[in-house]
From TrEMBL:
Annotated Histidine kinase domain residues: 6-223
Lineage of origin: Bacteria, Bacillati, Candidatus Dormiibacterota, Candidatus Dormibacteria, Candidatus Aeolococcales
Identification of the protein by name: histidine kinase
SMART domains listed in its UniProt record: HATPase_c (SM00387), HisKA (SM00388)
EC id: 2.7.13.3
Amino acid sequence: MRFTADAAHELRSPITAIQTVAEVALGQPRQQSEYRRSLETVLRSSHRLIRLTDALLLLASEDAGALTVSGDPVDLSDLVEEALDRWRKRAADGGVQLNGPSAPSAGLVSGDEVLLGRLLDNLLENAIRHAGASGTVRLDLDGSVSDGWTIVVTDTGPGFDPSFRPRAFERFTRAEKHRSRDGGGAGLGLPLCAAIASAHGGSVNIDPTVTGARLRVWLPATTQSAVVQHRQSA
């Protein structure tokens, strides 16, 4: 019941914004520039609404035991480079320096490329938002663990208070006192990452840090022979 109420509240905010802007814009004749600003607000609210509904649908699939992955071979190094390319402009626009490995090692896992890309997007969006102007975000891929690959995202923002960490992966939970809510999300980013990682047999954890924040995703590795076998059976 609480989940339904929280979901309804989060969905209501962008819907209300769209309705209010439309009513004001239609209230009286305006300059073209004013209409453009109104449409930009509607577009931003629409994007937020789409992200919310996508997140809720994915989490509903997890609750129903229907969140499954295709099991295709996926090279995490390619996904890391693509994610860095997608978010560099957004980071630069906010005054954030986004760094990554110059040549990440091939990290083969078995899973769903779209879902794993979404996991990376959520981690980077969250880190960039909280790093703030003049902050730094870094995305790394570590294959030193023999049975899997680790994705590490660090930021120089205010970090997570130790008291918040046990609740960090609860839905609609925000660290309001420690992580800025300005332009923030709905408190679904980390639960979404955890759901995607779990569907791949992995996990997400928040590392203790003195400053900033560091999130660590572990995913089980697959072998080159498994990739060859998959391609032969396709």
